[in-house]
């Protein structure tokens, strides 16, 4: 197991946030509760963020409702709103040096991983701006009786955007960028475990409000616990809830929203399979699969955590994977040479360790890792772990672990591989490895998942992304992600008098 023990940089000084951000302004909260940010490497508290109250949430929704109903933002053209998205992208780019260390502290990713993540966020705003400029919000269709029906695309209204802790700044782009492009007003609810990077985004919005580019009331950014957050979901003035997080939380949100038939978009969990077909060149597999399974130390819904290999190639592939996964450098996240850092929080490490124990109890064996790396008496680390002898029905093969834990599952033939890949309540991502790309495409079509790659684990988030089954509803990214924030209206008119 490759680990490094150097300390490349101290934990950054992060300012406390004493106010809440409502309607484009930092204002006093109605309560006095705080949320602590704990550095996942030092395990020390490094900042405090003001926790929003139910009254704060109600104020934010009221501001969003008023701003949307006034129509100042929604009445602007798509091109005008796209120009503001580009402004946001510019200012995010200017703050990359500020956001990069925050990403290390919040999520645990090494600094070399955090920086491109922050840089990607501005690119997602720019991509949405480009889609918005080409988006048609009106189309005339001639009916059989000679009349005209005008098809209008109108913003969904007040949007509650609820984001997770494992990718806070990126998921802001997935949700807030298209919502603003469509003309919606947004209440952004951030995760208590990663509250700081969204507050930097709030600063950007505050600047644009002050300069007159965004009307007051259009954007609020609040951090709150689950109980307070549920008042956002149940508020009758919220028209559309877009959520990224666990399937359990998504199920709860959908249930609450269903009571009043509110619109819901969900990006939820995954248990993605990578099928290594018998003709696959193992060297090609090793170029992407280990990173695809362990990105962000496995704290990613798209992680390829089930590796499917035929019985006849099992031993060969397992030995190669042990070397490849074991060579991923893990350690001090401030060292740019590391690819893996600690998990984001102590409870997450405990969760991952419990799943490793469950797998052993159910008869699987640890082929690599399985514990904490040597040399660290602090940091929420779990070694990259390969678990062999996994049956498709084991919990380790069925439930999302959210850590660097990979299940090795054998199949008899291609049909069996497809069946195992589809034997999941999830359907978010996946991969097929083969030297025959056309055949790989055919196999990919048989997998019930929203995104799948052939001979790579790389994804382009400017293209549509989302899941089948319990991995969610709707899509983010691409023109499809923008379409999520529009309602369709048909206006029927008679034929023009001759």
From TrEMBL:
Any Pfam family the entry gives: Aldedh
Chain segments annotated as transmembrane: none
Active site: 267
Residue ranges of every copy of the Aldehyde dehydrogenase domain listed in the record: 26-491
Alphabetical UniProt keywords: Oxidoreductase
PROSITE patterns documented for this protein: ALDEHYDE_DEHYDR_GLU
InterPro entries: Ald_DH/histidinol_DH, Ald_DH_C, Ald_DH_CS_GLU, Ald_DH_N, Aldehyde_DH_dom
Coiled-coil region list: none
Family of this protein: Belongs to the aldehyde dehydrogenase family.
Name the UniProt record assigns to this protein: Aldehyde dehydrogenase
Source organism per UniProt: Rhodococcus globerulus
């Amino acid at each position: 197991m490759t680990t490094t023990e150097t300390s490349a940089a101290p934990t950054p000084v992060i300012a406390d946030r004493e106010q809440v951000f409502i309607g484009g302004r930092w204002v006093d909260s109605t309560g006095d509760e705080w949320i602590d940010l704990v550095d996942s490497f030092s395990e020390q508290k490094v900042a405090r963020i003001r926790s929003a109250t139910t009254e704060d949430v109600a104020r934010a929704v009221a501001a969003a409702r008023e701003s949307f109903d006034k129509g100042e933002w929604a009445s602007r053209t798509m091109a005008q709103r796209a120009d503001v998205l580009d402004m946001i992208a510019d200012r995010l780019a200017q703050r990359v040096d500020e956001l990069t260390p925050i990403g290390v502290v919040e999520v645990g990713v090494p600094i070399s991983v955090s920086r491109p993540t922050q840089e990607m966020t501005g690119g997602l705003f720019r991509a949405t701006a480009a889609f918005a400029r080409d988006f048609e919000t009106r189309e005339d269709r001639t009916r059989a009786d000679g009349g005209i029906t005008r098809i209008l695309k109108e913003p969904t209204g007040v949007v509650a955007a609820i984001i997770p802790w494992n990718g806070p700044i990126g998921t802001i782009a997935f949700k807030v960028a298209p919502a603003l492009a469509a003309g919606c007003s947004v209440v952004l609810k951030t995760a208590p475990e990663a509250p700081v990077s969204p507050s930097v985004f709030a600063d950007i919005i505050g600047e644009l409000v002050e300069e007159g580019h965004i009307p007051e009331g259009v954007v609020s950014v609040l951090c709150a616990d689950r109980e307070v957050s549920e008042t956002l979901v149940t508020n009758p003035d919220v028209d559309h809830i877009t959520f990224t997080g666990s399937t359990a939380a998504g199920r709860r949100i959908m249930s609450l929203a269903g009571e009043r038939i509110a619109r819901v978009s969900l990006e939820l969990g995954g248990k993605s399979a990578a099928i290594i077909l018998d003709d696959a060149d193992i060297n090609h597999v090793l170029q992407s699969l280990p990173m695809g399974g362990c990105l962000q130390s496995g704290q990613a819904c798209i992680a390829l955590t089930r590796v499917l290999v035929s019985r006849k190639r099992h031993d060969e592939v397992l030995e190669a994977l042990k070397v490849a996964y074991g060579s991923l450098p893990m350690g001090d996240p401030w060292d740019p040479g590391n690819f893996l850092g600690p998990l984001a929080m102590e409870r997450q490490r405990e969760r991952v360790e419990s799943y490793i124990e469950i797998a052993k109890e159910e008869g699987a064996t640890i082929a690599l890792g399985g514990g904490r790396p040597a040399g660290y008496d602090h940091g929420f680390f779990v070694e990259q772990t390969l678990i062999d002898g996994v049956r498709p029905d084991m919990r380790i093969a069925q439930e999302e672990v959210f850590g660097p834990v990979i299940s090795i599952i054998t199949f008899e033939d291609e049909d069996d591989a497809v069946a195992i890949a589809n034997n999941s309540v999830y359907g978010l991502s996946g991969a097929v490895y083969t030297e025959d790309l056309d055949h790989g495409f055919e196999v990919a079509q048989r997998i019930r998942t929203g995104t799948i790659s052939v001979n790579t684990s790389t994804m382009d988030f400017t293209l549509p992304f989302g899941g089948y089954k319990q991995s969610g509803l709707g899509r983010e990214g691409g023109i499809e992600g923008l379409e999520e924030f529009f309602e369709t209206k048909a206006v029927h008119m008679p034929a023009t008098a001759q």
